[in-house]
């Protein structure tokens, strides 16, 4: 990340960090540390971060993704704007960070721009992640004007051949053009936002392309390049990179995490996820919302966030986290400090 991008990222957070949000964050840290050091598991703040799913539908067939592999067990669909608005009203003003993505391709939602604009009314840091195939100049202008803070483009290759091995059904040139559309829209609006992030998941077939992807990021004028380790699943067909630096696993088959699962998880205190149909889940690793605490379209978010099911799940995190299926493939769980 360049110094300019770092400053823009920092300013994007500072400008939405109200006193009420700071106090809420302090309460969350306090209750987490009390639980971590053996006291009663209790939450004394509201989520400071939340991921809301615009849609669980996707146009690509990525083999390590339950949506792409057509293995997602929960229903496919798109969120209703009225439900989305109701969620925001309940989460704010304590909410600081909103990620408009869980599963699926968010830009497939016809009202995605309206969702960003709605979130901007609450002065939130807003982010999304896209495969880029539904971007166009008009939508790019709309997202810039609506106040989106950050947009991540998944670009896992430097040619159609390598890109298409994972992003099955995708067009490498189409994604590049989508990035160009947003760069141009920012210039037209004379805006520094949204920050454009190019994300590169490292697999065995593309690890040799790291020098080329860095050059491509500079050529496309993105604000940041994120090189990330890939998550591997039992149903997938991809292979981890040979360079251990770019793998979260200790073996060449992607079965064992380098870091053993620890009985702690700060993410469970500061954030939550809501599926398109309203299921409040512990985090994005709960792909099928099997550990959902309830449905926010039937109960209030506070009722579920502070409820017995939520507290029971967090208690299990501190006692036997490795018995929770969704946690066994997660590299999170390090100390807060």
UniProtKB/TrEMBL annotation:
Gene3D superfamilies the UniProt entry points to: Aldolase class I
* Cofactor(s) this protein requires: [4Fe-4S] cluster
* This protein's record includes keyword Zinc-finger: no
Keywords of the record? 4Fe-4S, Iron, Iron-sulfur, Metal-binding, S-adenosyl-L-methionine
Keyword Cell inner membrane annotated:
no
| InterPro entries on file | 4Fe4S-binding_SPASM_dom, AdoMet-like_SPASM_containing, Aldolase_TIM, Radical_SAM_PqqE_MftC-like, rSAM, rSAM_sf
Residues forming the Radical SAM core domain are: 44-268
UniProt cross-references to Pfam families, sorted A to Z: Radical_SAM, SPASM
- Check the record and name the SUPFAM superfamilies matching this protein: Radical SAM enzymes (SSF102114)
Source organism superkingdom: Bacteria
Q: What protein is this chain from?
A: SPASM domain-containing protein
Origin organism of this chain? Carboxylicivirga mesophila
């Amino acid at each position: 990340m360049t110094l300019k991008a770092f400053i823009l990222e920092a300013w994007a957070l500072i400008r939405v960090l109200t006193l009420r949000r700071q106090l809420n964050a302090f309460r969350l840290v306090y209750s987490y540390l009390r639980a971590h050091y053996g006291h009663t598991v209790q939450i004394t703040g509201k989520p400071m971060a939340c991921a809301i799913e615009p849609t669980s539908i996707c146009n690509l067939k990525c083999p390590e993704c339950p949506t792409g592999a057509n293995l997602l067990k929960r229903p496919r669909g798109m969120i209703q704007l009225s439900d989305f608005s109701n969620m925001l009203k309940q989460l704010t003003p304590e909410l600081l960070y909103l990620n408009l993505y869980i599963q699926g391709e968010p830009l497939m939602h016809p009202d995605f721009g309206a969702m960003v604009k709605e979130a901007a009314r609450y002065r939130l840091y807003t982010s999304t992640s896209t495969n880029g195939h539904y971007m166009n100049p008009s939508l790019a202008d709309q997202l810039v004007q609506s106040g989106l803070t950050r947009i991540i483009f998944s670009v896992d290759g430097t040619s159609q051949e390598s890109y298409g091995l994972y992003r099955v059904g995708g067009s490498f040139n189409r994604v590049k053009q989508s990035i160009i559309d947003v760069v141009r829209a920012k210039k037209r609006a004379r805006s520094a936002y949204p920050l454009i992030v190019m994300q590169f998941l490292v697999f065995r077939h593309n690890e040799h392309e790291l020098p080329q992807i860095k050059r491509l990021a500079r050529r496309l004028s993105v604000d940041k390049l994120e090189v990330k380790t890939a998550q591997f699943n039992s149903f997938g067909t991809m292979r981890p990179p040979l360079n251990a630096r770019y793998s979260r696993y200790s073996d060449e088959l992607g079965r064992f995490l380098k870091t053993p699962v620890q009985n702690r998880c700060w993410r469970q205190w500061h954030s939550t996820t809501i599926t398109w149909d309203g299921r409040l889940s512990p985090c994005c690793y709960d792909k099928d919302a099997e550990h959902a605490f309830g449905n926010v379209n039937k109960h209030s978010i506070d009722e579920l966030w502070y409820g017995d099911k939520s507290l029971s799940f967090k208690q299990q995190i501190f006692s036997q986290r490795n018995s929770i299926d969704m946690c066994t493939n997660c590299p999170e769980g390090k100390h807060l400090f």
